[in-house]
Amino acid sequence: MMHLSNLTSLICLAPFVAVPFVRVQDGRATQDTLPAILSTEVPLGLPAALGEGHVSDATLALGRRLFFDPILSSDRTIQCASCHDPEHGFSDDEPFSTGVQGRKTLRNSPTLLNRALGSSFFWDGRTQTLEEQVLMPIENELEMDLSLDDAVARLAADESYVAAFGAAFGQGPSREKLSVALAGFVRRLWRGDSALDRFRQGDHDAFDAAERGGLWFFESRGGCWRCHTGPNLTDENFHNTGVGVDGEAPELGRAFVTGIDADRGAFKTPTLRGLSQTAPYMHDGSRATIEDVVEFYRQGGHPNAYLDERIAPLDMTDSDVANLVAFLRTL
Ligand code: HEC
Ligand code: HEC
User: Fold this and answer.
1) Mind listing the pLDDT tens digit for each residue in 15-51?
2) Closest CA to 67 of 106, 13, 121, 29
3) 294: CA distance to ligand 2 center in Å?
């Protein structure tokens, strides 16, 4: 183990190299296990346009370093990656995540895969751009609980960050540049090239018989494709499936943003990419396994006055269930 002071001096000597380091004291630190260089090659199945308009390598390295650095949390224990862990498909394994001082988030941490394809952010879509979104967890008192002024002051007091912002932007740390760097990094987290993408390209051996049966169910009787559609398996729209409606104080969901009664209990259709890594599921983390999710749909979601018309009980045999689960696991 390298001693912290050695590590700090190393970073000062080589400010342009993204050295994975963390100051988390309690051993909870989430490591940067991503490849040293994030490929610019757009994976099979994702739109080629993703490959355009990147931030510079210096900005990407800065955003990456910030994402894994607890410096952005009030007590220096929480990283973005604490709740968005690369090993968990950029989510974590709890229904609700833990922020500073053991505080719990009110919703399940969503995956950050393919957010470049998102048209709004958060489960209720209350934010339109990633640049806006990425600063919010820093200030959120349940997550990192640090004012942006303090965050910028901390970075400005750290020589290696001053150098890294200088290399990326030709100026020192600021809110705006902090957001550009973090959003630039999040935009580069891609997941494609799954069996489904290869199958769609004509590779008929990409699926075994069960997985293929699951795809068929997904696209026919299951009606899943009606919301989980397109390259990222989401319509980027909001629907009430009944998740959470039976809770003590059901959330307004999308209606909180639009003020429209019909949007009550509606949440954003999540991507299904990386699904086998992102359990538990749903905006409240209430479904522990993929099997539980499929059982939920089999029963027709949770009936309520605002249930989406596309959700209804499904006539499924046990092998339909097994096939659908097998297919979802491949994503
Ligand atoms: C304590 C846990 C926690 C931390 C720390 C955290 N997040 Fe999140 N993140 C969440 C939760 C929970 C949501 C969903 C909240 C909601 O929908 O209301 C979320 C949502 C997001 C989204 C929206 C994704 C989507 O599909 O709509 C992005 C992007 C994101 N976080 C990025 C970040 C970045 C960047 C950081 C660090 C600056 C960060 N998060 C820190 C828990 C966390
Ligand atoms: C009417 C649109 C709609 C249809 C049809 C639909 N879904 Fe969903 N799906 C959603 C929404 C919205 C959510 C999030 C619900 C919430 O958390 O409140 C979701 C969540 C999920 C999740 C959890 C993902 C995560 O990361 O938490 C899985 C898995 C899933 N759906 C699979 C399916 C399958 C399989 C089918 C077909 C049997 C299906 N969906 C049909 C809209 C739909």
Assistant:
1) 333 444 444 545 568 999 999 999 899 999 999 999 9
2) 29
3) 9
Distance in Å from the first CA to the final CA of the chain: 37
Nearest to 236 by CA among 122, 120, 116: 120
CA 166-168-172 angle, to 5 degrees, is: 35
Ligand 1 centroid, distance to 108 Cα (angstroms):
9
Decide: residue 116, CB within 10 A, 0-12 exposed, 13-18 middle, 19+ buried.
buried
* CA-nearest residue, atom 13 of ligand 1: 109
Protein residue with least CA distance to atom 11, ligand 1: 109
Please tell me the number of Cα atoms within 13 Å of 96 on its side-chain side: 10
Please tell me the total number of residues recorded for the chain in this structure: 331
Cβ-Cβ contacts under 8 Å for 34 (sequence gap 6 or more): 64, 86
**Of 164-173, 244-253, 321-330, which range is least confident?**
244-253
Pick the ligand that lies closest to the CA of residue 327. 2
- Measure 317 CA to ligand 1 centroid, in angstroms: 37
> Other CB atoms closer than 10 Å to residue 130's CB: what's the count?
20
Q: Which domains does the chain have, with CATH numbers?
A: 4-186 (1.10.760.10), 195-329 (1.10.760.10)
Mean of per-residue pLDDT scores for the chain: 91
Q: Please tell me the distance between residue 267's alpha carbon and the centre of ligand 1 in angstroms.
A: 15
Instruction: Grade residue 246 by pLDDT with cuts at 50, 70 and 90.
Output: confident
Q: Output 9 or 242, whichever has higher pLDDT.
A: 242
* Nearest ligand for residue 214 CA: 2
Q: Cα(157)–Cα(153) distance, rounded to whole angstroms?
A: 6
